[in-house]
Every structure is written in structure tokens, then in C-alpha cells.
């Protein structure tokens, strides 16, 4: 399980089936770590469900006297949990505008929050996660050897990894963008976190997580690696990343972690009761659709392709139970409204969904 209800989800970057594989097939010293991570997550979900409200910022969008929106800035706070299971962490180590701390995890978290804020503001004029200036908080050094990172509805939380299979989870910029995008999805469409709507929820986070990285690196669609979580694996793992949007199912093939289970086409759609109905597995299908659309459209993926997906997420026809086909129809409709029904953009989007078997 990865949720209690779709309104109170705990969104973790590392799928539960990977932790289960480590608990079953990993070396003895890592099995306990994996089991503890699997046990820690439900307890956080219980707290989240009983205390968290909707995603809502306390800082209104700033406007000039003339009514024009002024350029906002992120309001970041980084806390250190001191390797205790505390979120938020007890010690504030960096606030907005402070100099780097010298702690890689704290500074990577700070920079990642800023890069995600920059993508949504500069590309889509969205002021933070809730579009109302939500302060961006993060806790680093969570728990001991914790193999995960998550958005709990109010903040980002990062483990340091076990050092044997996983590095610290602040290393991957797209992971930070991915997790924060769950907050955007919760605020807008509220996609229920199970089955196809849950896989769409995961895919949208992968899309914008990848776009955060691409924009920060100045990469266009052709130059991007389209990997999610590149750098998280240590050299002991046979794999390049947690997922590949370009080629789902090829990101890793390791004796401990197993083989990447993601399908790239609806012909291989996985029906399962695990992982909330395969939310981290079947997200490979809409992931590849976005990759195909973005590379066919060309240029910077956060421009036209990203604009289509972002506006689709905001479209009133995308609701909590939206499935792949319904979301595909909305993206094609949005592309037609933005660029013309017979435009190259609309054609690319329609072809991309068709190519992955979604009609």
C-alpha cells in the first residue's frame, strides 16, 4: 500500500516492490533496512491522514499597483532530522537566501526545491505548488539508512540511502521535481492513487520531474536522457535509474532488485493488486507517450509538450478517476486549442498515445 485515500497519499519515489525485493533477496545487513522502510511508511501515512489538510499556501500571489504579477521567489526551509524518524526535522539548517551549508544533502534539497519552483513559474506562471506561494519545506537525513524520498502533503522528506544499493536521495534533481509535482496534482485534478488514475498521477510526476532536470541542465528533448532517478543506484546495482521514460522496462536488471517491470504499451498492461494496482508499474505507458510526443514536437520539452500536459492537468475534464484514454483525449483537445487541431503538436500528441496502444 502507498495510500489511505487519494486525498491523503504518501507519495514515495521508491516503489514498494523494490523494497520488498531487497527484504527478500538482499544481503542480510540490508534486509532489516528494507523492512524498516516498509514499516515506517504506513506510520507516516496514518499521521498524514489525521493531521494534513489540502495543499494550500499562506502567501498570496504578489501583484503590483498596476495589477501585473510580480516575479515571486520560493520560500525554502531545510531541516535536518539527524538520522531520526522525525519529519519535520528538529534543526533548521538553511532558509531562503542563506548561503550553502556545505552539507550536500541540505544544499541539494535547497537547489532542487528552487529548480522545481523555477520550472513551474517560468514555464507555466504557476506560483509554487498551490499557485498561491506555498512555502517549500524539506527534511534531510531522515531516519537511519532510509531508502526513500517522499512528499507527505506538506513537505519533502529525504533519506540518505543505505550506501550499498542506494545513494542519498537528494542526488537526483528529477526525484525532487517528481515528488513536489504530486502536490500540484493533488491541488488540481486530485487523481486517485490507484489503478490507471494512480499510474497517471505517477506519470505526471515523472514528466515534470524530468522537465525540472532538463530545464536546469539546458537540455532539449533530443539531448535529455529521459531517466528518472539517475544517480540513485550505487555501482553495485546493475541499472541506470529507477525508470526510463524513453524505454520503460529497461532501467535496471539486477539480482537483488529484479528487472524493471514497467510496460511500454497497453498490450503489456500489468493487472495487479500490489503497488496500489500498479501505479509505479503502468506509469511507463503514459511516460512513453509523453516522451514520444515531446521528441516529435522537438525543442525544449517544457515548452510546447510540457504546456500541453500542464494545461491538461488543469482541465476540468481531468478528474479523480480519469484513466489513460480519457487523459489522452484531453491532451489532444488541449493541443488543438493551443496550437490548432491540425497542428504538428496535436498530431504528435495523438500519434504518441496511439503508439503506446491508448486510443
Average pLDDT metric:
90
The top-level CATH class of the largest domain is Alpha Beta
Integer tally of domains: 2
Strand content range:
5-15%
The helicity comes to 40-55%
Low-confidence residue ranges? 1-8, 43-67
How many helices does DSSP assign? 10
Q: State the major sheet.
A: 6 strands, mixed
**What name is given to the CATH topology of the largest domain?**
Elastase, domain 1
* Gap between N and C termini: 30 Å
Task: Report the strand count.
Answer: 10
Order of helices and strands: EHHEEHEEEHHEEEEHHHHH
Q: What is the strand and helix layout of this fold?
A:
Layout (H helix, E strand, L loop, with lengths): L10 E2 L3 H10 L2 H24 L24 E5 L10 E5 L8 H21 L11 E5 L8 E3 L4 E3 L14 H15 L7 H23 L9 E2 L14 E2 L8 E2 L3 E2 L15 H4 L5 H14 L6 H11 L9 H16 L4 H12 L4
Parallel strand pairs: 2-4, 4-6
Antiparallel strand pairs: 1-5, 2-3, 5-6, 7-8, 9-10
Helix pairs in contact: 1-2, 3-4, 3-5, 4-5, 5-7, 7-8, 7-10, 8-9, 9-10
